[in-house]
Design a protein that fits this description.
118 residues, alpha+beta, four-stranded mixed beta sheet, 3 helices
């Protein structure tokens, strides 16, 4: 496993505080591409991307990186994933409670559609 950023550590601690369901880290969601989500709830198909480096000209804010991110996120969407992108100031209890609720709702919908208990 790679080293976690300070923002990822902040997210993990706050996610535990809001009692969010367990998440998979570095989930590879595409068979052919090496794309990974920072965090994912696989059953609910909810991905969480921690958006660090937006103020210091990281790969994600340059044209080529931005286009590649658009391709990744749109491909995820077309495959049923909800992708939540969290810049540093959105890693708050209020926002994570909304993410937690989304995961719970998508799990319920998944269970209702399959007729199986989670």
């Amino acid at each position: 496993m790679r080293n976690r950023s300070q923002l990822e550590l902040k997210f993990i601690l706050l996610w535990k505080e809001v009692e969010g369901q367990p998440l998979c880290e570095e989930h590879r969601f595409h068979e052919k591409r090496k794309w990974r989500f920072d965090f994912a709830h696989i059953e609910a198909k909810v991905a969480i991307e921690i958006e660090g480096g937006i103020w210091n000209q990281s790969r994600h804010t340059k044209a080529v990186g931005y286009i590649k991110d658009c391709e990744k996120y749109n491909t995820a969407l077309f495959n049923g994933w909800a992708v939540i992108r969290l810049p540093s100031h959105w890693i708050t209890e209020e926002v994570l409670l909304s993410v937690k609720k989304l995961i719970e709702e998508r799990c319920q919908t998944s269970t209702q559609n399959t007729g199986q208990a989670p």
